[in-house]
Each structure stands twice: as structure tokens, then as C-alpha cells.
Amino acid sequence: MRVAMLTGGGDCPGLNAVMRAVARKGERTYGDELIGFLDGWKGVLERRTVPMGVERMRGTLPRGGTVLGSSRTNPYKEEGGSAAVQATLADLEIDALIAIGGEDTLGVANRLADEGVAVVGVPKTIDNDLSGTDLTFGFDTAVQICVDAIDRLHTTAESHDRVMVVEVMGRHAGHIAAWAGIAGGATITLIPEEPFDVEAVCDAIRRRHTEGKRLASIVVVSEGATPKEGSMELQSGELDAFGHVRLGGIGGRLAEQIEARTGYETRVTTLGHVQRGGTPTAFDRVLATRFGIAAIDAVHDGAWGTMVALQGGSVVRVPLSVAVGELKLVDPELYDVARVFFE
Ligand code: F6P
Question: Over the stretch 248-281, which tens digit does the pLDDT of each residue have?
């Protein structure tokens, strides 16, 4: 078969590992020809392709990012976009497409599958907020980067008896914050699922600092967390082609409020795209490799409109519609675990 791949949306450590696995099993086991579209759906619309066989993918297992490039282009926002995608696939004689992406990229894949396109999805996002799969690759790497940073912030915060606010990614769901907060020993962790009370955050910090010891406080906050009473101004940024606002800034505003209300010196660290860069952890390399193998197997089973997923330790197939139907939020039980350690 002639099988194409693309990576869409925000990049993520492990994307290359997925494509390396697709190339290996596709070429060596099935005798496929593998090609890649550059820059997500944009490359499909513009018909920009590269060969993606075993030789191209050599040495890419530990590399972050995506050798194909990515974009947030939504073909359904372009005039005649879906027809143009289908025309590209027909004209280039592509038998199947493997779309590797998050809710937006897979949302497009789902609509195309409904229109009869031979497409299989692979879930990707550091945010880990896709339904139908217990985990997405890239998440473990992002959490580890956050925890490394928090460990370092603990020591400098203790030296100066400061409050450190650490802003992490997580637009709609606080998986990264919840895991990093628990693993990093945060004083308090704020996630989008639970709007927070600024004064309660300050009280927790006051309790900790009035214990008489030099106890630094670490506040982990998701970029998408919001204050309960609406007392803090929220950033309104540009929208992308999928209608998402560009976030980033809650950490700074929260730090200002904490310092003003408690009088404790407060600093902010916004980890931003550092969380998406660099080499994937061993766990993410293995998960990505398993997803890649499962995706090319799904292609050869003609399992169109499905996404490979991790459920209870096994790699399974779920309908793409399940994956993009609604976001997977933080399990309240996990947040309760984090809460036990709040001051
Ligand atoms: O969806 C993944 C993600 O990393 C979010 O956590 C974050 O809000 C967004 O992408 C950032 O997007 P961009 O790279 O376009 O700034």
C-alpha cells in the first residue's frame, strides 16, 4: 500500500518514534511505501510530501519535535478544504492516511472518515486530555520536565523564603499540573477543572510561612486555570484556526496577587514550550512505538475511522468519534490525592 502520515497541532516528544515504527513495520512487514505530508493538513492542501521510509527515520527515536513539521491548519476552515484533501489523496494515489494529532487534527480525521476517507488516528498531546485513551505519549516527558524544574525551584525558594508560582501547560485539563504538583510536592496545585479562590491560595501560603521555619511554597498552576470570583483579569489572546485562545499569563497575575495579599516575596516561572521540547522519556518512546505499530496494523485491517489507544495497559482501537467527542478531564480522585498535601 501507499501510506501517508502527517503530524498536526502542537508538537510533542515521541512523534518521530511513532513514525519510525510505522515506517519499520510498514516497509519491512507489509512492503508498503511510506510518505509524509509536511506541516500537517497544510501540507495536504499544498501537496507537499517527502519519503518516510526506514532510511529516513533512522536515528530519530530520541529526537523531540516532528521531522514532518506541524501546523494548526484546519481544512474545514478553508473554502473547498475537504474536497481538496480528498483530491490530493486520490491524485497522489494514497491508499491510507495516518493522522497523528490531538483533538483538532483527529477532529478533522473523524470528519474525513465520515466522508469515506481511509484514515486512522494516533493520539498525541502533552496535555493528555484526549478521551478513549488512558495516556498520550509526550505527557510523561512533559511531567518529568515540570518536576525537574520544581525540584530546582524548591532549593532556591528555600534560600530566599519565597513563594514560587510555576505555570505549566494544560489548556482545558490539568493533567500536567496534577501530576507535576503531586510529584513535585507543591503547596497547592490549580487546575482548569476546579476554579480557584485567590484568597484560599493565599491562606495556604500564610499557614505554611507562619510555621516559623523557612518553608518555601510552590504553587503549580495550569495555564487554563481560572479564579473563582472573577477577581483576576484574564488574558484575551488571538484565536487559532480551531478557535483556541493563546494562553499563558495566569502564573504572572497570580504571583502579583499573592505578593500583594500576603506580603511574601513571590516569583513566577512559566515553563511554556520547554515542556514540549527535547527527547522523549523511555516510557513515551515505548508508548509511541506501540502506537505506531498498532496504527499500521489498523491500516492493513482496514479499520478506517479508528484511533489507536492505550486502555488498561493494552493497545486497542476506538472510534475517532469517541476520542474527539469530549475532553478527558482530571479524575477528581487524583486531585483529591494532590489536595491531601495542600497546606
Ligand atoms: O495542546 C498542546 C499545547 O501545548 C497546550 O498545552 C498549549 O496551550 C498549546 O499547545 C500551545 O500552543 P502553541 O504551541 O500554538 O503556542
Answer: 689 999 999 999 999 999 999 999 999 999 999 9
Q: Which atom of ligand 1 is nearest to the CA of 223?
A: 8
91 carries an active-site annotation? no
**Three-state secondary structure along the chain?**
CEEEEEECCCCCCCHHHHHHHHHHHHHHCCCCEEEEECCCHHHHHCCCEEECCHHHHCCCCCCCCCCCCCCCCCHHHCCCHHHHHHHHHHHCCCCEEEEEECHHHHHHHHHHHHCCCCEEEEEECCCCCCCCCCCCECHHHHHHHHHHHHHHHHHHHHHHCCEEEEEECCCCCCHHHHHHHHHHCCCEEECCCCCECHHHHHHHHHHHHCCCCCCCEEEEEECCCCECCCCCCCCCCCECCCCCECCCCHHHHHHHHHHHHHCCCEEEEECHHHHHCCCCCHHHHHHHHHHHHHHHHHHHCCCCCEEEEEECCEEEEEEHHHHHHCCCCCCHHHHHHHHCCCC
Q: How many angstroms separate the alpha carbon of residue 87 from the centre of ligand 1?
A: 30
Binned at pLDDT 50, 70 and 90, residue 129 comes out as very high
Q: Catalytic residue among 11, 32, 104, 127, which?
A: 127
Q: Name the residue of 100, 169, 172, 270 to mutate for ligand 1: max ligand atoms within 8 A of Cβ.
A: 169
Looking at every residue in the chain, the average pLDDT score rounds to 94
Q: What's the rounded mean pLDDT across residues 99-104?
A: 96
Q: How far is the CA of 220 from the centre of ligand 1 (A)?
A: 17
What percent of the chain lies above the pLDDT cut of 70?
Answer: 94
- Ligand 1 midpoint to CA 10 (Å): 6
